[in-house]
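Sequence, please.
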């Protein structure tokens, strides 16, 4: 996740739990990165990033994390940490595609607003469609 023109880019970052994520400052001003766990509001880290600076953090738990800059309160983003390699944001029509999924039984979990929808899915061939 980078800080460019007083904006976090991307606004929503998917990271794999247990793998490092990098936070950078490509602006010509000092920023900080403050990350809180969304569910508990507990602070995860808060680091200053000078111009050209970078910081790596490994999210150890799945979840949603709010990102902000205390120096520039209008800056906000979100990190979604997932242990599954199959995590993504749907397109504007609500569609999504996972490639190279091994056959087997899975649970698809979709977060929309404050709602959480789960469906059981059996992947049996090269293409499996799920209607939510």
């Amino acid at each position: 996740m980078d800080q460019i023109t007083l904006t976090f880019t991307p606004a929503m970052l998917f990271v794999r739990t247990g793998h490092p994520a990098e936070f950078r400052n490509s602006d010509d001003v000092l920023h900080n990165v403050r990350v809180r766990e969304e569910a508990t509001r507990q602070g995860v880290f808060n680091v200053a990033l000078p111009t050209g600076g970078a910081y790596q953090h490994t999210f150890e738990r799945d979840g949603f994390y709010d990102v902000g800059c205390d120096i520039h309160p209008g800056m906000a983003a979100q990190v979604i940490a997932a242990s599954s390699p199959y995590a993504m944001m749907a397109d504007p029509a609500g569609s999504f595609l996972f490639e190279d999924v091994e056959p087997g039984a899975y649970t698809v979990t979709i977060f929309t607003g404050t709602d959480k929808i789960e469906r059981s899915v059996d992947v049996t061939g090269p293409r499996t469609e799920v209607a939510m």
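The CA atoms of residues 93 and 132 lie 13 Å apart.
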